[in-house]
Design a protein that fits this description.
157 residues, alpha+beta, HIT family, subunit A, five-stranded antiparallel β-sheet, globular
Amino acid sequence: MAYIKGENKPVDDDAGEGCPFCSIPSRSDEDGLIVARGEHVFAVLNLYPYNSGHLMTVPYRHVAQYPELDDDETLELAHFTQRAMRVLRAVMAPHGFNLGINQGPVAGAGIAAHLHQHVVPRWGGDTNFMPIVAHTRVLPELLSEARADLAAAWGDA
Protein backbone atom coordinates (compact mmCIF):
# COMPACT_ATOMS: atom_id res chain seq x y z
CA MET A 1 0.00 0.00 0.00
CA ALA A 2 2.92 2.34 0.69
CA TYR A 3 4.02 1.83 -2.92
CA ILE A 4 0.54 2.48 -4.30
CA LYS A 5 0.18 5.69 -2.29
CA GLY A 6 3.72 6.80 -3.14
CA GLU A 7 4.62 7.34 0.50
CA ASN A 8 7.98 9.07 0.95
CA LYS A 9 8.45 9.20 -2.83
CA PRO A 10 11.08 11.88 -3.55
CA VAL A 11 9.67 14.83 -5.46
CA ASP A 12 12.32 17.48 -4.90
CA ASP A 13 13.95 18.13 -8.25
CA ASP A 14 16.68 20.31 -6.72
CA ALA A 15 17.42 17.67 -4.06
CA GLY A 16 20.41 19.27 -2.36
CA GLU A 17 20.94 17.81 1.11
CA GLY A 18 17.72 15.83 0.74
CA CYS A 19 18.95 13.96 -2.34
CA PRO A 20 18.02 10.29 -1.87
CA PHE A 21 20.82 9.13 -4.16
CA CYS A 22 23.36 10.93 -1.98
CA SER A 23 21.95 9.48 1.25
CA ILE A 24 21.42 5.87 0.10
CA PRO A 25 25.14 4.88 0.23
CA SER A 26 25.32 5.74 3.94
CA ARG A 27 22.71 3.06 4.69
CA SER A 28 23.25 -0.67 4.90
CA ASP A 29 22.81 -2.50 1.61
CA GLU A 30 19.58 -4.02 2.89
CA ASP A 31 18.07 -0.74 4.12
CA GLY A 32 19.17 1.18 1.03
CA LEU A 33 18.19 -1.63 -1.40
CA ILE A 34 21.76 -1.53 -2.72
CA VAL A 35 22.60 -4.45 -4.98
CA ALA A 36 26.30 -3.64 -5.43
CA ARG A 37 28.86 -0.92 -4.67
CA GLY A 38 31.75 0.12 -6.87
CA GLU A 39 34.41 2.79 -6.56
CA HIS A 40 32.44 5.51 -8.39
CA VAL A 41 29.00 3.97 -8.91
CA PHE A 42 26.46 1.82 -7.09
CA ALA A 43 23.49 -0.28 -8.23
CA VAL A 44 20.24 0.13 -6.33
CA LEU A 45 16.72 -1.17 -6.75
CA ASN A 46 14.18 1.44 -7.69
CA LEU A 47 11.87 2.06 -4.74
CA TYR A 48 9.04 2.73 -7.21
CA PRO A 49 9.80 0.16 -9.95
CA TYR A 50 8.23 -0.16 -13.37
CA ASN A 51 8.83 -3.92 -13.19
CA SER A 52 10.33 -6.50 -10.83
CA GLY A 53 14.09 -6.17 -10.79
CA HIS A 54 14.04 -2.53 -11.96
CA LEU A 55 17.32 -1.13 -10.75
CA MET A 56 19.43 1.94 -11.35
CA THR A 57 23.14 2.52 -11.73
CA VAL A 58 24.05 5.73 -9.92
CA PRO A 59 27.28 7.70 -9.51
CA TYR A 60 28.15 8.54 -5.91
CA ARG A 61 29.02 12.08 -6.97
CA HIS A 62 26.06 14.44 -7.14
CA VAL A 63 25.93 15.47 -10.81
CA ALA A 64 22.88 16.18 -12.91
CA GLN A 65 24.04 15.79 -16.49
CA TYR A 66 25.76 12.90 -18.25
CA PRO A 67 28.54 15.11 -19.69
CA GLU A 68 29.48 16.09 -16.11
CA LEU A 69 30.75 12.56 -15.37
CA ASP A 70 34.50 12.09 -15.51
CA ASP A 71 36.02 9.24 -17.52
CA ASP A 72 36.26 6.84 -14.55
CA GLU A 73 32.61 7.44 -13.58
CA THR A 74 31.44 7.02 -17.17
CA LEU A 75 33.32 3.74 -17.58
CA GLU A 76 32.10 2.28 -14.28
CA LEU A 77 28.51 3.37 -14.99
CA ALA A 78 28.70 1.47 -18.29
CA HIS A 79 30.27 -1.60 -16.66
CA PHE A 80 27.68 -1.63 -13.86
CA THR A 81 24.89 -1.40 -16.43
CA GLN A 82 26.31 -4.36 -18.35
CA ARG A 83 26.73 -6.35 -15.16
CA ALA A 84 23.20 -5.48 -14.02
CA MET A 85 21.86 -6.89 -17.28
CA ARG A 86 23.88 -10.11 -16.86
CA VAL A 87 22.70 -10.51 -13.25
CA LEU A 88 19.06 -9.83 -14.11
CA ARG A 89 19.25 -12.35 -16.96
CA ALA A 90 20.70 -15.00 -14.63
CA VAL A 91 18.26 -14.38 -11.77
CA MET A 92 15.00 -13.37 -13.48
CA ALA A 93 15.34 -14.45 -17.15
CA PRO A 94 13.77 -11.36 -18.73
CA HIS A 95 13.02 -11.34 -22.45
CA GLY A 96 14.51 -7.85 -22.94
CA PHE A 97 15.46 -4.58 -21.26
CA ASN A 98 14.75 -0.89 -21.27
CA LEU A 99 17.84 1.19 -20.49
CA GLY A 100 17.62 4.90 -20.00
CA ILE A 101 18.86 8.14 -18.55
CA ASN A 102 16.21 10.85 -18.32
CA GLN A 103 17.93 14.25 -18.41
CA GLY A 104 15.77 16.94 -16.83
CA PRO A 105 12.17 17.00 -15.59
CA VAL A 106 10.77 17.54 -19.09
CA ALA A 107 12.43 14.25 -20.13
CA GLY A 108 10.82 12.37 -17.25
CA ALA A 109 13.55 12.53 -14.61
CA GLY A 110 11.94 12.13 -11.19
CA ILE A 111 15.14 13.25 -9.47
CA ALA A 112 16.80 15.38 -12.14
CA ALA A 113 19.50 16.76 -9.85
CA HIS A 114 21.34 13.41 -9.52
CA LEU A 115 22.10 11.40 -12.65
CA HIS A 116 20.94 7.79 -12.66
CA GLN A 117 20.49 5.15 -15.35
CA HIS A 118 17.48 2.85 -15.29
CA VAL A 119 17.87 -0.85 -16.08
CA VAL A 120 14.37 -2.27 -16.47
CA PRO A 121 13.89 -5.97 -17.22
CA ARG A 122 10.97 -6.71 -19.55
CA TRP A 123 8.91 -9.81 -20.28
CA GLY A 124 6.41 -10.47 -23.01
CA GLY A 125 2.99 -9.43 -21.70
CA ASP A 126 4.36 -7.61 -18.64
CA THR A 127 2.05 -4.67 -19.27
CA ASN A 128 -1.53 -5.34 -18.26
CA PHE A 129 -4.66 -3.42 -17.32
CA MET A 130 -3.54 -2.49 -13.77
CA PRO A 131 -1.52 0.63 -14.72
CA ILE A 132 -4.43 1.86 -16.82
CA VAL A 133 -7.35 1.03 -14.54
CA ALA A 134 -5.81 1.32 -11.08
CA HIS A 135 -2.81 3.59 -11.87
CA THR A 136 -0.52 1.10 -10.12
CA ARG A 137 1.62 -1.95 -10.82
CA VAL A 138 1.45 -5.44 -9.40
CA LEU A 139 4.89 -6.77 -8.47
CA PRO A 140 5.30 -10.47 -7.68
CA GLU A 141 8.29 -10.08 -5.36
CA LEU A 142 9.18 -7.93 -2.37
CA LEU A 143 11.98 -5.44 -3.02
CA SER A 144 14.03 -6.89 -0.16
CA GLU A 145 13.85 -10.37 -1.70
CA ALA A 146 14.77 -9.09 -5.16
CA ARG A 147 17.73 -7.15 -3.68
CA ALA A 148 19.04 -10.23 -1.87
CA ASP A 149 18.78 -12.42 -4.98
CA LEU A 150 20.46 -9.88 -7.26
CA ALA A 151 23.20 -9.01 -4.75
CA ALA A 152 24.01 -12.72 -4.32
CA ALA A 153 24.38 -13.15 -8.08
CA TRP A 154 26.37 -9.93 -8.64
CA GLY A 155 29.74 -11.54 -7.91
CA ASP A 156 29.14 -14.29 -10.43
CA ALA A 157 28.26 -12.04 -13.38
